[in-house]
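Quick question: what would this complex look like in 3D?
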Amino acid sequence: MRDPVTAATAPHFRIEVRTRLSTAAAVAGLCVVAALVALPWYAPRTALKDMFFVLTLIGLAQCWNLLAGYAGILSIGQQAYVGAGAYVLFALSIFLDLDPLLSIPLAGALAALLAIPTAKIIFRLNGAYLAVGTWVVAEVFRLVCAQIKSLGGGTGTSLPTDVTSGAASVRFLAETMGVRAPVARDILAYWLALTFAVGIVAACYVVLRSRQGLALAAIRDNEAASESIGIDRARTKFWVYCLASLGAGLIGALVFFQTARISPAAAYSVTDFTAYVLFVVVIGGVGTIEGPIVGALVLYLLRDQLASLGAWYLMLLGLLAVAAMLFFPRGLWGSLAERFDIHLFSTRRRLVMPRAEPSEDLQPLPHMIQEEH
Amino acid sequence: MALLETRDLSAFYGDFQALFGISMAFEAGDTVAVIGANGAGKSTLLKAICGLVGARPDAVVFDGRPIGGLRASEIMQLGIAMTPEGRKLFPSLTVEENLLIGADHRKGSGYWRLETVYELFPGLEARRTAAATALSGGQQQMVAIGRALMSNPRLLLCDEISLGLAPVVIRDIYAAMPAIRAQGTTVVIVEQDIVQALAVANKVYCLQEGRVTLSGAPAELSREAIHEAYFGH
Amino acid sequence: MVSGIDIVLQGVLLGGLYGLFAAGLSLIFGVMRLVNLAHGDLIVLAAFVILALVNGLGLPLPLAVVVAAVAMFVVGYVLQYVVLNRTLGRDILPPLLLTFGLSIFIQNGLLEAFTADSRRLSAGDLETASIALGGGLAVGVVPLMTFATAVAVIVALNQVFYRTAMGRAFRAVSDDPVTAQLMGIDNRRLFALAMGIAMVVATIAALFLGVRANFDPSIGPARLIFAFEAVIIGGLGSLWGTLAGGIVLGVAQTVGASISPEWQLLAGHLAFLAVLLVRPRGFFPRAID
């Protein structure tokens, strides 16, 4: 056996989380957020709608990234909570006449409550089968919503104008800003989207820098080993799943408050709330906070330029995702960050110490297996 | 010309270097023992020869042909069979299927086939339809050796075939060596258990921390020299 | 009473179709632990290939199926060899995302090539033929053929798996891909072969999909869900279990549909979730793994 490293030769190492770059990025990030808050005063309404799309996408992608990139939960059924949030919002608005400022957060919370029993069932599955289980759950939610005749059944329904443009919060906004009610509604939706997106990014950042974040990284890297060092894997995964579902529910409620029209097909759309989200995370880079932001901007540009191509546009997205998985599995941001060692949201603890020598017993990677670095 | 030569062979796991410029030559008909402590690089050496660990093309030369870095399946088809450490039988296959699969992609022309393997290891035939993992450790090791023989290899690599077995079982397994050598097969035995290996080998290499520290014929090497080469200072 | 038996009987026969959808999926999962999210779309692609051969080249249906099966074998082989092999490994995220992208690509490619119209494969008089079982019960010839084919396909796949050198290699690679290479097995080729075979099964499934009901480019994902549910209900790694899973799903759907047409899909999904609650590893899980 090799000698253990003796005290005399023990390396001096230090742990860093913050880097000079990440501090600069935080300042720049605050400036960007401030500019975005002020957007309604200097940008046209279409820009608000475009940014609404980008921000909701960032929120959803960030949640999915937290699930897959950090907790190793592969879900292709987060549209379940988008749709559930949307339907709860419609129910609260139509039946209880609640103001959107109240009903949107409430809808998100109720959607997240649904994640509790759901998790109990689908977490009996592993890996890719868990992914399919989440999809089945989304289908069940969709089919159940299609049965609710008072919310339009299979064809869907619209929000009455007295809860959209006529809501107290929208009217207040219209009066103070001196705009028409529909514009005020867009502004309110936009600000909420900005709040949610920033909130979700911040929440992910806080989670990943916390002890739970370390636990997540450990689970992602090696489930069995993380268990042996005392991490309650099931519990951590459960909480992450509920948190990500809360995010999806909030954004679902918000998106359908903005469109004011709902149907089971639209609220539980695999394309809008899973395909796009997966594309954003894959293109941007799995397992980074910056990746989904970059990916959402890329998707926005592609959609802006190419959406008129219809099926060709979606084919291109599919092909780009395939190509990214093959040639840039870490995505645009992941590849750049690796190449130039940039970490704007520095979540990783960096350890500076001499190289450790693994033992010879390390299994070599067979040809079929690629390194996961 | 040697049947297999390693020329300045180095091997890596990621950034970690496990072998440092190993040069060896195995002649046809040799039985070679490679000994060394845990972590000395013995297993890595075998893996580099059989293609599970990458190597420079001309760092491994088999029958005059550079084979370093070829795929393991290609190397096997050239006539190098491996009995991996831990036996690695296929649990979904029966004993007989485990033997047959050894010959599915290279039959070779030679003595070894199902009947002759059963002759070499009596006792396996009675268990031929059993799941391979239902056998005792010693019998599993016999299946693993038989599986490698089924392809009638020119070079047989045996990684720690006595690991975890009782001395009496180890003796049974080593009793098969003369019959294997009688077919002209070159055998490389990697062992931590020096006694068995040296008893059957006509050539020995000792590895320490990825380097050859001693080589020669077992009879010519003193106990002290081996001890020093094995454990270092 | 008679109608109750009839519902179950129709459900069992429907289960044959789901068993066919699932057999290919089960095969490739068993051999290489690959979960192919594009499987449903590949079945639909095969149905459109058959349709194009019949309508475009005027081939008779049986010949068109054979040609399509060969073409799909090549598609599967190349897809696996060139693309999917590169993503296999310990991390299941890359193959999952890649096949999801592929699914979107195939769906929209079909939409562009064949429009969103519903299509059907014509099997002539067979489509409406049925066999009376007495007591007011009757089974359609096509559903019966579907079920018989599902059984035949599973028997054939089991023969390949347990009686041939190729099947031996499939099982060995499934157990231990590294040691399999020491047996001279080229994993890349073997995986490609498995995908090719899965695509032949998918083509057979596509035939019955197209003869029994309408299809259009968007229905792949729903078929994929049925296939997955059948595989999980049956237990991973067992082809007969997969057929049993298909039958459970089929019966649940026909029972649901007998209550209300809207309940057909919901009942199937709920049955799946119920099985998960009671037997998370399915009815016939393989001992190992």
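Answer marked as accepted. Residues 181-209 of chain A form the longest helix (29 residues).
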